[in-house]
Amino acid sequence: MDDKVKQFQKDFPGVYFIYPTADSIGTYLKSIEYFQAGEHIISLDKPGEGNMNFVIRVITNQRRFILKQARPWVEKYPHIPAPIERNAIESAFYSTISGNALLLKHSPHIIYHDPASFIILMTDLGESSDYLNLYERGKTIEQDQLNSITNYLTQLHKISPAAFPDNWQMRLLNQEHIFKFPFRKDNGFDLNQVQQGLAPVALKYIQNKPLVDRITALGDLYLEHGDVLCHGDFYPGCWLNTTDGLKIIDPEFSFPGFREFDLGMMVGHLIMALQPHESIDQVISAYKEVAPISIELVFQIAGVSILRRILGVAQLPLPLSLHEKEVVMDQAVQWITS
Question: Does domain 2-123 have CATH number 3.40.50.720?
Answer without folding.
Answer: no
